[in-house]
Specification:
Elements (H helix, E strand, L loop, with lengths): L1 H11 L4 H28 L2 H12 L3 H10 L3 H11 L5 H16 L3 H29 L6 H60 L4 H5 L3 H6 L3
């Protein structure tokens, strides 16, 4: 019974309901895609291993830091490994490039939600205009004009309500994901800056990361100095 009511309401909304239905499913797909990505990202984080890597870098234990970066899927440790790999050229630039790539992944398809937040109410408004125009065209035609007018107004209200509902559906996750992206960007900046300071501190104590990075991957763990 409830399914029939939904179908009937959908059909009364007019043809503009079909593009809004497509927008609704597109929004759901993007929201689910972003939710899965963030859940997977959160699951790869290993704060204890990150702290171990920072300690290893600060004390000049580069083989340990390299090993942590190679053996873990933590994006921060991968960022460290990327920087250590290119430390003989520019560790900071390598880590920043890797971080930029990670931020781009976190922002993937967010433009779709942003577009739907604006597009869905406009589609609803368009449906409203069409419904009202249909109502006015029925005025004075025959004795059924009143029912036709009410049908057009009903079509207008349904389209408007659906457009607003889709915008709300997109707006809340969009703001949530944007906040997570901002937090991730700040965390990466702190991670990179802290790592740079630790490398400089280690260098002052006679541990040269650039010399370590110039070795082959096989010899890095075996011969740290």
């Amino acid at each position: 019974m409830s399914a029939n009511i939904v179908v009937q309401t959908f059909l009364r909304g007019g043809w503009v309901m079909w593009p809004m239905l497509a927008a609704f499913f597109l929004a759901l797909c993007v929201i689910l895609d972003r939710a899965v990505w963030w859940l997977h990202f959160q699951g790869t984080l290993e704060s204890k291993k990150q702290e171990q890597a920072r300690i290893a870098i600060g004390t000049g234990d580069f083989p340990r830091a390299w090993q942590l970066g190679q053996e873990n899927a933590d994006p921060f440790l991968e960022n460290l490994a990327e920087g250590m790999t290119h430390a003989h050229t520019s560790m900071l630039a390598a880590m920043q490039l890797h971080a930029t790539h990670l931020i781009e992944k976190s922002e993937a398809r967010m433009w779709i939600l942003s577009t739907l937040i604006t597009l869905a109410p406009l589609l609803g408004l368009f449906g409203t205009v069409i419904g009202i125009m249909g109502s006015f065209s029925s005025i004075g035609e025959d004795q059924l004009a009143a029912s036709k007018v009410s049908g057009g107004i009903s079509e207008a209200l349904i389209a408007t309500a659906c457009g607003i509902a889709i915008a709300i559906l997109c707006l809340l996750p969009y703001n949530f994901f944007r906040k997570r992206i901002a937090v991730l960007r700040g965390s990466l900046e702190r991670w990179i800056n802290h790592t740079e300071l630790l490398v400089k501190s280690a260098k002052e104590h006679g541990h040269d990361l650039e010399a370590y990075a110039s070795k082959t991957p096989e010899s890095r763990i075996q011969n740290p100095d």
